[in-house]
Amino acid sequence: MKPAPTLSSAFLQPAGEALPQPLLALRKQRGTALVDMPLPTRKTENWKYSSKHLKLSDELASGLPAGGASTRIAEDGYRVVFRNGVVDSQASNLPQVDGLSVQRFADLSDDEATSLAERLDNTLDSNATQMARLNSARFEDGLLITLKPDTALREPLFIVHEVTATASGSAYPRIYVDAGRHSQIILVEEYLSSGDESVMVDAVTEFMVADGAQITSIRLNVEDQNVQHIGATGVRQQRDSRFESHCVGFGGPLRRHDLQLRLEGEGAECKLNGVVVTQGKQHYDNHTCIEHMVPNCNSEETYRNIAGDQSHAVFNGRIHIHKDAQKSNANMNNKNLLLSTGAEIDTKPELEIYADDVKCAHGATIGQLDETSLFYLVSRGIDRRDANVLLTMAFINELVSQIPVQQVRDSANERLNQFFDDSFKEA
Q1: pLDDT for 80-110, tens place per residue?
Q2: What is the reported pLDDT for 383?
Q3: Contact yes or no for 285/50 (Cβ under 8 A)
Q4: pLDDT for 71
Q5: Which of 26, 112, 143, 276 has its CA 20 to 30 Å from the CA of residue 375?
Q6: What does pLDDT average to over the chain?
Q7: What does the domain layout of the chain look like in residue ranges?
């Protein structure tokens, strides 16, 4: 029997040492635990559709050097710029708000770093997010965002992740958000790239959401076709808190995002929206998991996938209602649109319920553009290409229009228009 592939030791050699000692110690500990880590295969349940797209050659093991031109979606707004996984302070524009602290990991004191090291990795299921463990062994910098109780940032904070692919390698950006009681923030993460060499981005963001806090997380992935992207977002919510997520992703050789939430305080609510489009031979895999741990919590999840040409989109959504989580209200909906006979979409909504007084529902559909609707539009003088665009945009516009930041909606619509131009070429 052929032995299972394991992570190359080349990936366990972090280059950057510009971190406080407690974080260096944590990174070393995590690296030691990854020696001989089995890589996902088609027999790994949560990677069965994506493992063949994961390419971890030794040339990707080297950390990418910081540098490259800056490209921002919010020239005048609050922003933090990561370049190849390292914070670029000169390109950043940090908010000066009482009660809000935005710090590089490299700038933390030993006491601050010790406290952070104790909290990292506490929001994600390590068995389900194998590649997030690699981030913990390799991050060279990161961002700690702390909101004291009752602190509100009224304008969005943009986190711009830039990868400059002038040589093969990998980047490991890391963010930790500690949102105090009744605090508020909108955090926008945009992933960009330039250059033509093969690179990998392994990104992790964690949120600790205290009582009554309101957090909006927006994630926009527009990296180029030479970038493998593997991301994980972990969230732990306390009493009466609200977490809202908007994820918009465009396909590549491998795009993967794990989104995991634990509703740990009564009255906690979450809302997850996601839009994915793929074309050519691109691949995009979304895995979500919502854990209802306690009574009287609400969750709402809506994801839309569009796949054209010979591309492949995957959605696996899981809602777990624990035994003590009575009066939970959970709803999951996944709709999928195939634009060609060669495209493929796999969807797997899951409900696991151990409480008996709950309201839960889930559903999934896969289909093509409706010919009757197309005929109706064409018969009214709209050419077939525009009719295709109208119907396809209508399929996802409900979610795009809910993104609460205009700059992100504009960026998403610009890329969607490019996708439509490529997908519907006929006059």
Answers
A1: 999 999 999 999 999 999 999 999 999 999 9
A2: 86
A3: yes
A4: 53
A5: 276
A6: 93
A7: 16-369
Beta pairing class for 199-209 and 227-237: parallel
Which CB contacts under 8 angstroms, 24+ apart, belong to 400-406? Answer: 400/248, 400/275, 402/246, 402/273, 403/218, 403/246, 403/248, 403/273, 404/186, 404/216, 404/218, 404/246, 405/156, 405/186, 405/188, 405/218
The 10 Å Cβ neighbour count of residue 425 is 8
For the record, the structure tokens of 370 come out as 């409706």
The helix or strand, by DSSP H or E, that contains position 269, with its residue range, turns out to be strand 269-278
Q: What are 234-293's pLDDT values in tens digits?
A: 999 999 999 999 999 999 999 999 999 999 999 999 999 999 999 999 999 999 999 999
- H or E element, residue 254: strand 254-263
N residues, the chain = 427
> Does the pTM of the predicted model rise above 0.85?
yes
Integer Cα distance of 334 and 362 in angstroms: 8
**Which uninterrupted H or E stretch holds 423?**
helix 406-423
Distances (CA, A) of 179 to 3, 23, 100, 158: 44, 21, 9, 16
Rg over CA atoms, the chain: 21
CA distances, 159 to each of 4, 101, 190, 244, 346 (Å): 37, 15, 6, 17, 31
Determine contact, residues 210/179, Cβ cutoff 8 Å: yes
CA distance 304 to 336: 6
Q: Give the burial string for 185-213 (b: 16+ CB within 10 Å, else e).
A: bbbbbbbbbebeebbbbbbbbbbbbbbbb
> Which secondary-structure segment (H or E) carries 201?
strand 199-209
What is the per-residue pLDDT for 68? 55
* C-beta separation of 14 from 138 below 8 A: yes
If one compares 311 and 424, the residue with the highest pLDDT of the two is 311
Residue 114, H or E segment: helix 110-119
CB under 8 Å to 392, separation ≥6 — which residues?
306, 337, 339, 369, 420, 423, 424
pLDDT in tens, 384-421: 888 888 899 999 999 999 999 999 999 999 999 999 98
Mean pLDDT across 216-221: 98
- HSE-up of residue 65 (Cα within 13 Å, Cβ side): 5
Residue 288 contacts residue 247 (beta carbons within 8 Å): no
Q: Are 207 and 264 in contact (CB under 8 A)?
A: no
Provide the 3-class DSSP secondary structure of residue 343: coil
Tokens of 144: 């700690």
